Amino acid sequence: xxxxxxxxxxxxxxxxxxxxxxxxxxxxxxxxxxxxxxxxxxxxxxxxxxxxxxxxxxxxxxxxxxxxxxxxxxxxxxxxxxxxxxxxxxxxxxxxxxxxxxxxxxxxxxxxxxxxxxxxxxxxxxxxxxxxxxxxxxxxxxxxxxxxxxxxxxxxxxxxxxxxxxxxxxxxxxxxxxxxxxxxxxxxxxxxxxxxxxxxxxxxxxxxxxxxxxxxxxxxxxxxxxxxxxxxxxxxxxxxxxxxxxxxxxxxxxxxxxxxxxxxxxxxxxxxxxxxxxxxxxxxxxxxxxxxxxxxxxxxxxxxxxxxxxxxxxxxxxxxxxxxxxxxxxxxxxxxxxxxxxxxxxxxxxxxxxxxxxxxxxxxxxxxxxxxxxxxxxxxxxxxxxxxxxxxxxxxxxxxxxxxxxxxxxxxxxxxxxxxxxxxxxx
Length: 427
Fold this sequence. Notes:
This protein is an alpha/beta fold. It contains 15 helices and twelve strands. Helix content is 39%, strand content 17%. The strands form three sheets. Strands 5-4-3-6-7 form a five-stranded mixed β-sheet, with helices on both faces. It has a five-stranded mixed β-sheet with strand order 10-9-8-11-12, with helices on both faces. A two-stranded antiparallel sheet has the order 1-2.
């Protein structure tokens, strides 16, 4: 962090703010280590004013002022000198994400198509662009399609573009970034998706405002959606957050503990979709029967209703319509209750093992919760030791595009850790 030579240096005897806050000791360059924590607090909405940031970081006002000045100089935040609040003490400046600040490309591949958007800090997404899958869905062509779609958005903006991150509907190993069980597209197990995506992003033209080479990252969509909900949605304030979702097909899960994703030894933890909830149930693409994956996704809901989805329309949208029809249609209600009972069994089993303090449901599971909230909570309570005591709150996700928002978090990760790595301008 750079301090003006004429500015009083925090922590010295001639700094009146340091004298008032004498219990806080600020080393001359301490602000450098505080840039990341400060930006992260502003990013998740926990420091809307400079006084709030001062308290959260436990630093002097002068140090907080220097930190926010550096973040503003990097074009990441705005500092509004108009006083905020009318309480006691000195009015505090307002802090906000710079609406003209840099962006990252956030992308998602799902079973029925792909989505891309630009994302600034603060969990703010531009309107996503949704596209059909290309005719060929081999890894190179599919990753090329999403890379080129993101590059088109980057070329159309005047904002600096600092990275590209992608959410995938299958497990992704850490740290090598290989796709396992990519059954939606029949990719070979171990496909090096991280390397392939990096190549395709490097080939695409992102325009003059994009960093070159453009950093890339890739991860499982459920993990990323869970991280986004924890930071910006229904998971805020939870210590042990269990996230379960059903997208266009299949079921994913994730666990966030004290702000960190629990991904296991190789990035493959919390594959809750392959938890058995009915040994005699529907076949799963993994080769087993009755997995949560095959018992509680959109296909399962249509099967329970004895209906077939319309071709050419997104399956998830049709399944949500069927959930809403449960309010007036007996067949839809019976199907919803059947799937909810299976979902409740799965959630109870996972809750018994993990003891989460909050369960967040997304995708079709959110619609099931809204269609019959008491039925789902009753099944979990009856089957879970912790559910019987009412200690497993089940809530719906708040983010409309959780996986894309999570991809944005992934893309912003290096800069939240080290804001000084953000280039002020490109040459």
